[in-house]
Write a structure and sequence with these properties.
It is built from 3 helices and 4 strands. The protein is α+β, with helices and mostly antiparallel strands. A 4-stranded antiparallel beta sheet has the order 2-3-1-4.
Length: about 100
């Protein structure tokens, strides 16, 4: 892997149920990209070889939330990018915590 992003999408919603529905639609979009991803309680991490593709996915997540009914979307994005070489993968970072 040469890049990964962690994205927290926070659509404006009338209630928690609607918020979860919108976030679920964003996660379904991410799942449909075919890239390796991990859903956490605050953010979803996605990894891949193509930095530009990951940035496009981060951008599209905002559009998906709006299409799902959000009038406004806040997003927090973390990026790790190494144009030459490898980065630590999701599995390398959290495997030891899954074994418990």
């Amino acid at each position: 892997m040469s890049a990964s992003i962690a994205i927290q999408v926070l659509p404006e919603a009338e209630n928690s149920k609607e918020l979860c529905r919108m976030v679920d639609e964003v996660i379904a979009y991410i799942a449909g990209t075919g890239l390796h991803y991990e859903v956490g309680p605050f953010e979803t991490t996605i990894e891949g070889e193509n930095y530009d593709q990951l940035m496009d996915i981060a951008k599209q997540c905002q559009h998906v939330a709006v299409q799902a009914g959000a009038k406004r979307v806040s997003a927090y994005i973390k990026v790790v990018y190494r144009p030459e070489g490898e980065i630590l993968t999701i599995d390398q970072k959290i495997k030891k915590y899954r074994e418990n």
